[in-house]
Amino acid sequence: MAKLVSQVYAEALFGLGVENGLLDTLLEELNGMCEILGKNPQFVTLLGHPELDQKEKTAVFDRVFDGKISKELNGFGELFAIREDYERRCLAYHKIGVVYVTSAEELSDTQKENIRQKLLATTDFVSLQIHYQVDAALIGGLKIQIGDRVVDSSIQNRLKRMKDSLMRVSLS
Q1: Contact between 25 and 68 (Cβ < 8 Å)
Q2: Of 75, 101, 109, 157, which has the most beta carbons under 10 Å away?
Q3: CA 16: distance to chain centroid?
Q4: C-beta of residue 94 within 8 angstroms of C-beta of residue 34
């Protein structure tokens, strides 16, 4: 499967960041640039204007950001998409896991800490960014997502599996 251009750029930038010891600096700069661009959509529109050639776009970009960002970031397009992929790579490099925990009701601090400890003990991560949310439709139990892996121990899921199993039973 072909990589998206933004993934190729993020991979190249990540390589430069590792090689030059600038991983976290480049991430901070990417976040700052994306924040500035997010607040100035007309500038993004200008950079995407079809009548400006790449040389002119680069010149405008350089005038705005020259001296404010690392030279490694000059010339990169699709900053929002690059930032996402670059951040994922940085987190993986630092062995920081991004976890989404959904529960039927709000979890106590003790429950959250128990989940954090269990996840650290059963993964290769040294640190976790855990995002909690509540979904009463789960009825009980937890749904935990780390990357593309999902562990769903909710009562909602158990009932669904039971229903599916019963539907497969043929009546003789």
Answers
A1: no
A2: 101
A3: 20
A4: no
